[in-house]
Amino acid sequence: MRGDITFRSGRLVQWIGTALLGAVLFLVFWTWTALQPVNPQDHQAIYVKIVPGQSAAQIGRVLYQKKLIRSAFAFRLLTRFSHQARSLQSGVYRLSPSQNPQQMLAMMEEGKVVTIRVSIPEGFTVQQIVHRLVMHHIGTTQEFASLLKTPLPGMPKPAPGVKDPYEGYLFPATYQFPYGTTPKQALTTMWTTFVTRVLPLYKKSHSSLSLSQWVTLASIVQVEDKNPGDASKIAGVFINRLKIGMPLQSDATVRYAIGHPITGSLSYTNLQVLSPYNTYLHKGLPPGPISNPGILALKAALHPAKVPYLYFIALPNGHTLFATTYQQQLANIQYANQHF
């Protein structure tokens, strides 16, 4: 009898062991299956927004609802055992059914959010910047128009007659904006970049120019300069004119005042446009910048070359001819007309 009980107990233990092993194997197989891609052949991009404070369980449910994973529960288990639950970063991610949950988690842990790459060339006006941002699906022209009426905190107070308070203070560079960036966020990013990369130069220089005057001069140099090596000389020409009360007579300021592209040289009528930006009619600097200058032009305006020149002419081949007297300038113009 005792042997029979022992035999039955052994059978029960064996049965339980087999059942447990089967359950473990089933769980392993189920988990392995649940963590496979939904469809390895489907590379369709699906955008998923992860908001700050969202738990791994909530993220799993979102992924499951969008048919990106096979099981929200398996996703949650994966984050728990991999200790990734608390290191997932918010943002918008570009995912696809061909990815497995491990790959998605790795992207969220590294913060590989969708970005919009936008290159802003040196010398772009604010309106050109807005057009480029809109073309990259950041906001609308109407949204930017309402924002541009009020300067961001810290921007210089616009002087009377300024066309655009933001002009000159949106730093030209290549930006990687997160997907979903708003117009205000984009403008703030460019202004913040100006603050961090440009303002330190000004503070160290102890320049006699105000911040607005410096950026305004740099913006003119930026547009007038066709050869980076001549930037400081061109800045020197304008400084010399300012010192003796001579009009800057910059075509670039007139073109800005007109507000639309003009092919070729400016006409006499163009030079008579009634605007505080017309430096043929008004002495001194215009009321504000005419473009968003880069570092080279900003440095040139901050440290202009000490030259005797009062005139210059930019040639089509990129070279610049300088002159001290008006007679020398006329000779340079004649040379340019004969050779180009």
TrEMBL record:
The keyword Membrane applies. It is a single-pass membrane protein. The chain crosses the membrane at residues 12-32. GO terms for biological process: cell wall organization; peptidoglycan biosynthetic process. It catalyses: a peptidoglycan chain = a peptidoglycan chain with N-acetyl-1,6-anhydromuramyl-[peptide] at the reducing end + a peptidoglycan chain with N-acetylglucosamine at the non-reducing end. It comes from the Bacteria. It is found in: Cell membrane. It is an enzyme of class 4 (lyase). GO terms for cellular component: plasma membrane. Keywords: Cell membrane, Cell wall biogenesis/degradation, Lyase, Membrane, Transmembrane, Transmembrane helix. The record marks E224 as: Important for catalytic activity. The keyword Glycoprotein does not apply. Pfam families: YceG (PF02618). One of its GO terms (molecular function) is lytic endotransglycosylase activity. Its EC number is 4.2.2.29. Gene3D superfamilies: Endolytic murein transglycosylase. HAMAP family: MltG. NCBIfam families: endolytic transglycosylase MltG (TIGR00247). This is Endolytic murein transglycosylase. The lineage of its organism: Bacteria, Bacillati, Bacillota, Clostridia, Eubacteriales. The gene is mltG.
